[in-house]
Each structure stands twice: as C-alpha cells, then as structure tokens.
Amino acid sequence: MGSLMNLKVNCFVPLSHRENEMLRQKKLLKRLVPY
Predict the structure, then answer these.
(1) Of 35, 3, 31, which is closest to residue 19 (Cα–Cα)?
(2) Domain around 24
(3) Half-sphere exposure of 12 (CA within 13 A, CB side)
(4) Structure confidence by residue, pLDDT tens digits, 1-21
(5) Which of 8, 21, 22, 24 is the 20 to 30 Å CA partner of 31?
(6) What is the 3-state secondary structure (H, E, C) of 1-35?
(7) Tally of domains within the chain
(8) What end-to-end distance do the CA atoms of the chain give, in Å?
C-alpha cells in the first residue's frame, strides 16, 4: 500500500489540495466510526 511512505513524504512535501481533502474525509470517517 505504501501509506507509511506517503506519510513520510508528506511530512517534507506540502500536501496537494486533493490530498488534504482525502485526509479530512479520513478524519471524519474515524470520528463517525472509531476503529
């Protein structure tokens, strides 16, 4: 999946608008459905 790699890269490279929207959706999903 490479999600960890993406997180590391995002720490140094500014997130694009689409990536920010995806992160917001993931946070909302986590709030609605706690894992």
Answers:
(1) 3
(2) 3-32
(3) 4
(4) 456 665 666 555 566 777 888
(5) 8
(6) CCHHHHHHHHHHCCCCHHHHHHHHHHHHHHHHCCC
(7) 1
(8) 19
Ramachandran bin of 2, using left for φ above 0, alpha for ψ from -120 to 50, beta for the remaining angles: left
At residue 17, what is the residue type? Answer: H
- Which distant-in-sequence residues (6+ apart) come within 8 Å of 15 by Cβ? 23
- Mean predicted confidence (pLDDT) in 20-35: 79
Per-residue confidence (pLDDT) for residue 3, from 0 to 100: 65
- The model scores a pTM over 0.70: no
CA distance 7 to 26: 14
